[in-house]
Amino acid sequence: MDFVTLASPMHPITYMSDLTKTPVPQEKLPRTDAEWRELLSPLQFQVLREKGTEPAYSGALYRNHTDGDYHCAGCGALLFKSETKYESGSGWPSFWLPATPTALTTHEDGSYGMVRVEVTCANCGGHLGHVFPDGPKQTGLRYCINSASLSFADQGSAEKTSTTKE
Ligand SMILES: [Zn+2]
């Protein structure tokens, strides 16, 4: 179960978000494929529900550097914060830490002849991307996430939290 070790770094991590927040009503889930097709764009459906991958460098959020929150495009659950987004050069939005310890679920993925660790939204099960052990030193993890799986809320439109900025 290497992937469990991978997702649980040795050093304790301080999460920056309010862990008591549960923004998404789960009673509407799970949805049927037909319901998801109505809610999502064709690309979002292909990525989130059929585990597709958008072309590298194509995603709308790949070069987004605005401060704010990244939510699941399927259910709205908070997944990542801009503070942990970084340029990995991979062509997909990359993060070194999820917004909360319970935001994501990981699964071993043996497709395409590779053993990778798939990352899904813990709330709706939507496919987000993969996590690799070559991230920056804070956690050593690189969450390689499809733009199509994410919806971005910049800090101005989100609920303000008291954070100290340099
Ligand atoms: Zn979700």
Write up what this structure looks like.
This protein has 3 helices and 9 strands. It is of the alpha+beta class. The chain has one domain (30-154): Metal Binding Protein, Guanine Nucleotide Exchange Factor, Chain A (Beta Complex), CATH 2.170.150.20. The strands form 2 sheets. It has a 6-stranded antiparallel β-sheet with strand order 3-4-8-7-6-5. A 3-stranded antiparallel β-sheet has the order 2-1-9, with no helix packed on it. A hairpin with a 6-residue loop joins strand 5 and strand 6. Residues 1-22 and 160-166 have low confidence and may be disordered. The site of zinc ion (ZN) has 8 residues, from loops. The site of zinc ion has 8 residues, from loops.
- Name of the CATH superfamily: Peptide methionine sulfoxide reductase
Q: Order of strands across the widest beta sheet?
A: 3-4-8-7-6-5
The outline comes out as globular
Question: Could you give a short account of the major beta sheet?
Answer: 6 strands, antiparallel
Named CATH architecture: Beta Complex
The poorly predicted ranges are: 1-22, 160-166
